[in-house]
Amino acid sequence: MITIHIVNDHHIASAARPSRAVLVTGCSSGIGQATALALARAGFPVWASARKPGGLAELRRAGCRVLELDVTDEQARADAVRQVEAEHGAVGVLVNNAGHGGGGPVEEVPLGIVRETFETNVFAVIRMCQLVLPGMRAQRSGLIVNIGSAAGLVTPPTGCPYAMTKYALESLSDALRPEVAPFGIQVTLVQPGAVRTRFMANSEPHQPEDDGDSPYAVYKANVAKMAARAHREGARGVLGADDVAAVILKAVTAPRAKARYKAGSQARLAPVARRVLGDRGWDAFMRRLVPFPAPR
């Protein structure tokens, strides 16, 4: 007796040829834009997304498909993943780049800003992973690239809550990596140091309002000066968005991506200095780097 099995051709195609489609979040500028361009030029089918897709014209001209995607909106997240899956069967690579900053002295940071920063930088990343993983499991292949930061390795002054979210991505990536490995799925974390983009300017609305009478006013001004020096043109160790995009491309095209990619000297050296100096030594170094005047 001969049994004939009827199998969906789409599933056969997916199994034979795993999707190479890349979904990149936060592509309106900076690292996301540079990454989408680099991957498109390397021949990947790229779906570039942003909360306001009006800024994605250059990526469209470069051959990217563009999507409107606010990563904090559940309907928008689900719709974006469905669109990619409808054409390619699955998301082959997810680059979780979208995010925003937010920070200040802990005493002054409104909890609303803390929640908003975690919503974008952590909760949205988790949900995007949840949405793409079923398709990746079905094709027994996939890569999730989380964009962390050197701030997730060494907390800068007034780093709450931005640095907290990047520390959370360290833990998320470590938890996820062994969970999905049996399904042929890889997870990598890219940890850039200072990057010269519009990110800091775009993050200004997420900073606590200053009434001019803050006990931390001088300290915050000194932190701002330090950040400006660190990101100025020609500053040593500062990356361009293209530098980070090159690291992401390296991870995506590697036969087996590393668990972590440190981008730039700051991400490589700061954790070593932190470990060598210890808590007291590091705190003393921070006080010299960012002076805090004696309280009045």
- The number of distinct β-strands equals 9
- Low-pLDDT stretches: 1-15, 199-203
Summarize the helix and strand pattern as letters: HEHEHEHEHEHEEHHEHEH
Instruction: State the end-to-end CA separation.
Output: 93 Å
Which percent bin holds the helix content?
A: 40-55%
Structural class given helices, strands, pairing?
alpha/beta
Descriptive report:
With 296 residues, this protein is α/β, with parallel strands linked by helices. Helices cover 49% and strands 13% of the residues. It contains ten helices and nine strands. It has helices at residues 9-16, 30-41, 57-61, 74-88, 111-139, 162-180, 199-203, 217-231, 241-253, 265-289, and strands at residues 22-24, 46-50, 65-68, 93-96, 142-147, 185-192, 195-196, 239-240, 260-263. A seven-stranded parallel sheet has the order 3-2-1-4-5-6-9, with helices on both faces. It has a two-stranded parallel ribbon with strand order 7-8. Helix 2 crosses helix 9, helix 4 (74-88) packs parallel to helix 5 and helix 5 runs parallel beside helix 6 (162-180). It starts with 8 loop residues before the first helix and ends in a 7-residue tail after the last helix.
